UniProtKB/TrEMBL annotation:
GO biological process: carotenoid biosynthetic process
NCBIfam families linked to this entry: crtI_fam
Record's keyword terms, sorted: Carotenoid biosynthesis, Oxidoreductase
Catalysed reactions listed for this entry: all-trans-4,4'-diaponeurosporene + 2 AH2 + 2 O2 = 4,4'-diaponeurosporenal + 2 A + 3 H2O
Alphabetized InterPro entries for the sequence: Amino_oxidase, Carotenoid/retinoid_OxRdtase, FAD/NAD-bd_sf
Top-level lineage group: Bacteria
Family, per entry: Belongs to the carotenoid/retinoid oxidoreductase family. CrtP subfamily.
Protein name in the entry: 4,4'-diaponeurosporene oxygenase
Stretches assigned to the Amine oxidase domain: 14-488
GO molecular function, one term: oxidoreductase activity
Cofactor(s), names only, from the UniProt record: FAD
Length: 491
């Protein structure tokens, strides 16, 4: 009789859930350990009275990636979650009182650009064509594959793709080739924060995000984006994955160049043939695997990775409804300085850009009384020693800045919760509080992230924002699926 192979997934974020679904549906008896008492990781619902919020991903792109996880497992995604397309998805507001709507409708977007600058409007079609090409390159060469060792980089098509993806130009320079108005450039440059980086350093490769938002569209999940995590969990359980919530893995037991078993905080030991680490590999690999078992990644190497941007978040339950868009960005005056202050000085911007997501504008049932505002300012990741810049005054400062922009929300505040970079590090074991794992400010961190597989332990695989293809909810879902595929091919 053929014994069923066993797999263990450490961490129940989107990457871990997608790996578990794939492995179980391909015949592995899979156990997933999640230290928190819910799965979904950073994609998590927060409830304050009658107000429901998504902490984490508020902007969903590439809905097919989430749907495909379920389709590949033989499930109908419509039974688990439904996406709503937001055509005119974001309102960008500038300090001079002007604004620019972002829309995935080409004609509407061209008219919007034309209101601010006819040159940018005339170049918009060229911009769309170029960002589509960049996306197609990434899709063909990076997104659907794992990188297991340096040998994976030694292919001519890949080298060609890497050189055509504009690795030497910054995102800011790329945008300046198509747009002239500083407000428009500011709005497009904000895409760098989707990968936790600065537009003045991140390579133009990431202009592909423009294709996702402007070409493909921005989506919201009916009932809140956390429905994706709930749907994944439900499907995993239906397929037979054993999901152990509130159970933290504290050790990987290695023998003869392999992981033999994991041990939990309660002393449970579980053996398996293959292991996927979804917990941030930069914090969990050195913690769970003894240094002598991983000569390729000794302790000293981890600190060399630059963490992505972090965030200071206010979840504000309000008694009033305000005139804001589902996604609304209030730009500060000095955005270049803001990025420099964050990445070079490790401090908050003096006049920070404020992003607000009010999902009740699309789904009023999420906060029947008044608005549910998720308010985010970009934050520096924690310093190496773990210290954090002062954020205690930040909440008041944000209310004041918003009030100056005509949004006096403090007057109708029923309840609020704040989340700082230190909270993010603690709740998810995220490397220095990073939202997206490793930043893409340096070329090597963009293209040469840690591989999807341990170089020392042959049955240990990595999924999540700190590995390929990178951070952001669709990317980590791909990484989980890709890591599972590698295991299935090999075992
Ligand atoms: C405030 C914020 C806003 C964001 N906005 C967006 C957005 O608009 N769009 C977007 O696409 N993305 C966004 N992101 C990024 C997105 O949330 C992440 O890229 C993605 O959710 C990461 O998924 P993951 O599975 O890699 O990791 P995680 O979600 O961090 O999951 C890892 C899990 O592993 C668990 N774990 C770690 N160690 C152990 C252990 N030893 N034992 C057991 N369990 C363990 C952790 O508790 C965690 O649940 C945002 C993130 C944040 C925080």
């Amino acid at each position: 009789m053929n014994k069923q192979k066993r797999a263990v997934v450490i961490g129940g974020g989107l990457a871990g859930l997608s790996a578990a679904i794939k492995l179980q549906s391909e015949g592995f008896q899979t156990t997933l350990f999640e230290k928190n008492d819910y799965s979904g990781g950073k994609l998590k619902e927060v409830v304050l009275g009658t107000h429901h919020f998504d902490f984490g991903p508020n902007t969903i792109t590439m809905p097919h990636v989430f749907r495909n996880v379920l389709i590949e497992a033989g499930e109908n995604p419509d039974d688990y979650f439904q996406f709503i397309k937001l055509t005119t998805h974001t309102k960008n507001e500038f300090p001079d009182g002007s604004h620019l709507f972002f829309s995935s409708d080409k004609e509407e977007m061209t008219e919007e650009l034309n209101r601010l600058d006819s040159y940018s409007a005339a170049k918009y079609n060229d911009y769309l064509n170029e960002v589509k090409k960049l996306y197609q390159l990434a899709e063909n060469h990076f997104l659907n594959r794992t990188f297991s060792s340096w040998k994976d980089y030694l292919s001519l098509p890949l080298a060609k793709a890497m050189s055509s993806s504009r690795p030497l130009e910054s995102l800011d320079r790329f945008h300046r080739r198509y747009f002239k108005d500083e407000r428009i450039i500011k709005a497009f440059n904000r895409y760098a924060t989707y990968i936790g980086s600065s537009p003045f350093n991140a390579p133009a490769t990431f202009a592909l995000i423009g294709h996702l938002e402007m070409g493909d569209g921005v989506y919201f999940t009916k009932g809140g984006n956390h429905q994706i995590a709930l749907g994944f969990e439900k499907a995993a359980q239906k397929l037979g994955v054993d999901i152990c919530k509130g159970e933290e893995v504290v050790k990987c037991i290695a023998k003869d160049g392999k992981i033999k078993a994991v041990e939990t905080a309660e002393g449970k030991v579980l053996e398996a043939e293959a292991f996927v680490l979804n917990g941030d590999l930069l914090t969990q690999y050195p913690r769970l695997v003894e240094e002598k078992e991983r000569p390729s990644l000794p302790d000293g190497k981890f600190n060399q990775y630059e963490p992505s941007i972090s965030a200071f978040v206010i979840l504000a339950a309000l008694s009033e409804r305000y005139n804001v868009h589902h996604h609304h960005v209030y730009f500060g005056d000095r955005t270049r300085e803001e990025f420099e202050t964050i990445f070079q000085d490790g401090q908050y911007g003096i006049d920070p850009t404020i992003y607000i997501c009010t999902s009740s504008k699309t789904d009023p049932s999420l906060s029947p009384v008044g608005d549910n505002m998720f308010i985010l300012v970009n934050a520096p990741p924690l310093a190496n020693k773990g210290s954090a810049p002062e954020s205690s005054m930040l909440e008041e400062k944000i209310y004041k800045l918003l009030s100056n922009r005509g949004l006096p929300i403090k007057d109708s505040l029923i309840q609020s919760e704040t989340v700082s970079p230190r909270d993010i590090a603690k709740r998810f074991y995220a490397y220095r509080g990073a939202l997206y794992g490793i930043a893409s400010n340096r070329k090597k961190d963009t293209f040469l992230r840690p591989y999807n597989r341990s170089q020392d332990l042959s049955n240990l695989f990595f999924a999540g924002g700190s590995t390929h293809p990178g951070g952001g909810s669709p990317m980590v879902v791909l990484s989980g699926r890709n890591a599972a595929r590698l295991i299935i091919e090999e075992f």
